[in-house]
Design goal:
It contains 5 helices and no strands. It has 147 residues and is mainly alpha-helical. It has helices at residues 3-18, 30-41, 47-62, 81-95, 128-136.
């Protein structure tokens, strides 16, 4: 499925699931829900964080074999998160009136690093609770995170 079609499909399914409520209703673990709540709380001010996470989640859904922590094509076995975001994610977010950067979330200096988002990655993101939530969402595990 093409990324644009996939995004529209997920959007429609999400609307049907959540409706007009403001609560995340899914089978996500309590800790991931808490992390997402923190990230969503700061989504207007930290658009890069939500865009990078959204890009990574969608890319991982479409290409499950990709380790999305390797977010640049020059990294061994990496992909271009910025290109995918610019082409698909940011336009989709803007079209749906979600918090979105003007061009791409990957221009945020602390996120557009030439290091993969491994456990030792220390982004310069404030406040600290959004930084911790961002870092935890990239943890390598079969059941938690999106790596």
């Amino acid at each position: 499925m093409e990324p644009k079609e996939y995004l529209e499909k997920l959007y429609d399914e999400s609307l049907a699931l959540v409706g007009s409520g403001n609560e995340i209703k899914s089978d996500l673990s309590k800790s991931i829900k808490q992390d997402l709540d923190i990230i969503l709380e700061f989504s207007e001010k930290r658009k890069g964080v939500i865009t990078v996470l959204f890009t990574s989640m969608i890319y991982k859904s479409l290409f499950p074999e990709q380790d999305v922590r390797k977010h640049q094509s020059q990294m061994e076995d990496g992909y271009s998160g910025r290109t995918f975001d610019t082409k698909f994610i940011t336009p989709f977010l803007q079209n749906k009136n979600f918090p979105a950067p003007s061009e791409t979330g990957w221009l945020t200096r602390s996120l557009e690093t030439n290091s993969p988002y491994f456990l030792d990655y220390k982004p310069n993101i404030t406040p600290k609770n959004i930084k911790n939530s961002f870092s935890k969402d990239f943890r390598p595990s079969k059941h938690e995170g999106i790596s």
